[in-house]
């Protein structure tokens, strides 16, 4: 590809500060930006990035079709919500305009096992208009390709156990609320945990209706099984609140969480496969107390056992770098909703992004 890769930014909050800067520093450029927040609409993206004006004004998402028809970006980065039901409109806008899109939405990483009908609708529209839609981010490398790479050095696997934690303060209010941060324990049980106290048949009905609320590891386990060639026999999840014994201020929630209230939660997903391998993964998302930090800890049990522990990963920056590094992959990929286990491993980009586009 001879020209610079042109990228649209959909969602101009905390994550976009990194994604937009990384786009420029990787030899590409932002050609359009959108948001729903009236406080940022009309601003130059340079003000969001904390640099000189870039000559790109943030516009209302209502204008996305008009803008895409006039300036068709090579790719669109979507950094907004965490569920496919929330992202459907954004992804469909990209799909109907033939614009490749990649999102930090956690469910978008592998939504075929949680929001099949929504994903299929986006897939069909993307195929019709010759573009690729997908989700990626921190999980793409640290919960996905890292684990399957280690599996490739293992003779026999009986179980894979993973645990990863992150500070919801770094990701914005939507993610914090999905984790139940700030709720008293009774409200947490009613609004968050009770959703998983259902049978497999009831869960499937919710999935069919697009009303299931998957934890982040639900998608990860599906991705891992797809990459490893495993057949899912059963999959369940449970959400457990985390608390702190002192009042804890949350700048993202604009509140002080009282001692004993939920600061966030653990979501534990257990997958049994027909091949006998069990995958048990846990993600811990909460408002951190002063002594806490991000961790990523995985163990592959078998012959031999292998453990990898990563302490203090910069999850925000790693998420955003993975998204930008993936841009050539989504441009090169076949049309449709294509999850990243069907793409090459995410690679460091030494050259400008356009030089990796076929």
Automatic annotation (TrEMBL):
<protein>
    <submittedName>
        <fullName>Uncharacterized protein</fullName>
    </submittedName>
</protein>
<dbReference type="Pfam" id="PF19328">
    <property type="entry name" value="DAP_DH_C"/>
</dbReference>
<feature type="domain" description="Dihydrodipicolinate reductase N-terminal">
    <location>
        <begin position="8"/>
        <end position="103"/>
    </location>
</feature>
<dbReference type="InterPro" id="IPR045760">
    <property type="entry name" value="DAP_DH_C"/>
</dbReference>
<dbReference type="InterPro" id="IPR000846">
    <property type="entry name" value="DapB_N"/>
</dbReference>
<dbReference type="InterPro" id="IPR036291">
    <property type="entry name" value="NAD(P)-bd_dom_sf"/>
</dbReference>
<keyword id="KW-0521">NADP</keyword>
<keyword id="KW-0560">Oxidoreductase</keyword>
<dbReference type="GO" id="GO:0008839">
    <property type="term" value="F:4-hydroxy-tetrahydrodipicolinate reductase"/>
</dbReference>
<dbReference type="Pfam" id="PF01113">
    <property type="entry name" value="DapB_N"/>
</dbReference>
<dbReference type="GO" id="GO:0009089">
    <property type="term" value="P:lysine biosynthetic process via diaminopimelate"/>
</dbReference>
<feature type="domain" description="2,4-diaminopentanoate dehydrogenase C-terminal">
    <location>
        <begin position="247"/>
        <end position="344"/>
    </location>
</feature>
């Amino acid at each position: 590809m001879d020209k610079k890769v042109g990228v649209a930014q959909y969602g101009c909050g905390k994550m976009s500060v990194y994604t937009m800067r990384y786009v420029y520093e990787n030899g590409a450029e932002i050609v359009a930006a959108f948001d729903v927040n009236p406080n940022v609409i009309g601003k130059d993206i340079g003000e969001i990035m904390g640099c000189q004006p870039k000559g790109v004004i943030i516009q209302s998402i209502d204008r996305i079709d008009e803008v895409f028809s006039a300036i068709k970006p090579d790719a669109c980065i979507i950094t907004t919500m965490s569920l496919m039901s929330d992202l459907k409109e954004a992804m469909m806008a990209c799909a109907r305009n033939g614009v490749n899109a990649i999102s930090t939405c956690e469910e978008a990483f592998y939504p075929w096992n949680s929001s099949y009908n929504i994903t299929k609708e986006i897939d069909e529209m993307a195929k019709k208009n010759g573009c690729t839609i997908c989700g990626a981010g921190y999980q793409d490398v640290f919960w996905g390709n890292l684990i399957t790479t280690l599996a490739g050095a293992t003779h026999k696997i009986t179980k894979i156990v993973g645990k990863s934690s992150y500070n919801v303060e770094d990701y914005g209010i939507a993610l914090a609320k999905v984790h139940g941060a700030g709720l008293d324990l009774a409200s947490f049980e009613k609004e968050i945990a009770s959703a998983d106290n259902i049978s497999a048949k009831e869960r499937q009905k919710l999935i069919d209706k697009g009303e299931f609320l998957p934890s982040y590891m639900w998608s990860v386990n599906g991705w891992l099984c797809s990459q490893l060639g495993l057949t899912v026999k059963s999959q369940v999840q449970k959400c457990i609140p985390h608390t702190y014994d002192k009042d804890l201020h949350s700048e993202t929630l604009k509140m002080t969480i009282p001692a004993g209230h939920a600061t966030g939660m653990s979501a534990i997903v257990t997958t049994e496969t027909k091949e006998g391998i069990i995958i048990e993964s846990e993600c811990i998302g909460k408002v951190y107390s002063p002594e806490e930090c991000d961790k990523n800890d995985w163990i592959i049990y078998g012959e031999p056992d292998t453990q990898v522990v990563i302490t203090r990963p910069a999850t925000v920056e790693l998420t955003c770098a993975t998204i930008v590094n993936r841009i050539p992959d989504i441009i090169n990929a076949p049309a449709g909703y294509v999850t990243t286990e069907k793409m090459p491993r995410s690679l460091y980009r030494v050259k400008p992004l356009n030089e990796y586009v076929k």
